[in-house]
C-alpha cells in the first residue's frame, strides 16, 4: 500500500503543474521569464522590522544549488523581487533603506557607486503602495535592470553595482538574516 501511495504521489508531482508558493498573502510564481530566460524560484521570506511585516523578498535564479556567494558572483541571470505588503513602506523609506543598505554592503565606500546609486533611486520616485512589486535583475557583464510592476524603469551598468545591491539581502551583513536564509530556500 505504501508503494502505491508513493507511486501516486510521484505521478501527481510529475503530471501537475508547479504551484506557486504563497508567503504572507503574496503568491509567488514557480518561475519568471527575464530576457527570454526562465529563472526558477528559490525561496522567499518576509522583511520585518519592529514586528511589522514590510515586504516579501524572493529570489529567482537559473543556477542550481544556490548559496549567497553563488548569486553574487554568478555569470547567470538572477532576480530579487520585493512585494510590498505594508503602508509603512513609502518612497522616502525605500530610498533611505537602499542608501543604508549600500553603505553597509560597500563597507562605507559609496564614492565609486554614488552616481549610479542616485540614478537607481529614481525607481522609487513614484508613490510606493501595498501591492507594488519591484524586480531587480542581475545581468552579469552588464549590470542591473529594475522593474516596477513589470515595467522596466532603468538599467544601471556595472557588476560592482549589481553585486552591491544584491548584497543588501544576500551579503555577509544582510539587512535581515532570516530573510536571507528564507530567500536561499533554507
From TrEMBL:
Identify the SUPFAM superfamilies for this entry: Chalcone isomerase
Name the InterPro entries for this protein: Chalcone_isomerase, Chalcone_isomerase_3-sand, Chalcone_isomerase_sf
Q: Name one GO molecular function term.
A: isomerase activity
Has keyword Acetylation? no
**Which keywords does this chain's UniProt record carry?**
Isomerase, Signal
Ranges for domain Chalcone isomerase come to 20-185
Give the residue range of the signal peptide: 1-20
Would you tell me the protein name for this molecule? Chalcone isomerase family protein
Organism encoding this protein? Ferrimonas pelagia
The record lists the lineage as: Bacteria, Pseudomonadati, Pseudomonadota, Gammaproteobacteria, Alteromonadales
Amino acid at each position: 500500500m505504501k508503494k502505491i501511495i508513493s507511486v501516486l504521489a510521484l505521478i501527481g508531482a510529475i503530471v501537475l503543474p508547479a504551484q506557486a508558493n504563497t508567503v504572507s498573502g503574496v503568491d509567488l510564481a514557480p518561475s519568471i521569464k527575464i530576457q527570454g530566460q526562465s529563472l526558477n524560484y528559490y525561496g522567499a521570506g518576509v522583511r520585518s522590522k519592529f514586528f511589522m511585516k514590510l515586504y516579501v523578498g524572493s529570489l529567482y535564479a537559473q543556477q542550481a544549488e544556490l548559496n549567497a556567494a553563488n548569486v553574487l558572483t554568478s555569470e547567470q541571470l538572477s532576480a530579487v523581487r520585493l512585494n510590498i505588503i505594508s503602508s509603512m513602506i513609502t518612497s522616502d523609506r525605500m530610498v533611505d533603506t537602499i542608501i543604508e543598505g549600500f553603505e553597509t554592503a560597500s563597507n562605507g565606500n559609496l564614492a565609486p557607486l554614488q552616481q549610479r546609486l542616485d540614478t537607481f533611486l529614481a525607481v522609487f520616485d513614484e508613490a510606493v503602495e501595498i501591492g507594488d512589486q519591484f524586480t531587480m535583475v542581475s545581468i552579469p557583464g552588464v549590470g542591473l535592470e529594475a522593474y516596477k510592476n513589470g515595467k522596466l524603469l532603468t538599467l544601471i551598468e556595472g557588476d560592482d553595482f549589481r553585486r552591491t545591491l544584491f548584497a543588501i539581502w544576500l551579503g555577509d551583513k544582510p539587512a535581515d538574516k532570516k530573510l536571507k536564509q528564507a530567500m536561499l530556500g533554507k
